[in-house]
Amino acid sequence: xxxxxxxxxxxxxxxxxxxxxxxxxxxxxxxxxxxxxxxxxxxxxxxxxxxxxxxxxxxxxxxxxxxxxxxxxxxxxxxxxxxxxxxxxxxxxxxxxxxxxxxxxxxxxxxxx
Length: 113
Description:
- The protein has 4 helices and no strands.
- By secondary structure, it is mainly alpha-helical.
């Protein structure tokens, strides 16, 4: 029996890669605005950095690193799809990419707290 396309694990990997890219694209303006504070208003940047010690912000940083890692490994998976011959182990590689992303972001989070 054939798996419906939207229930296929590689379709889910595709959606995760797309959503992580979208979230990172939405984050970039905030990041650039924060960096601009270093030039335009250094005092407000210092008060903003004080906020980064809050547990919720550290959790958000974990999410950001997770999104970066998922997007990186999802991109590597797409490159593999383009340049390597198809194999049934690609579902395993997609799951491993998410696992490595969790490991990378988790180690960042543990280092941050």
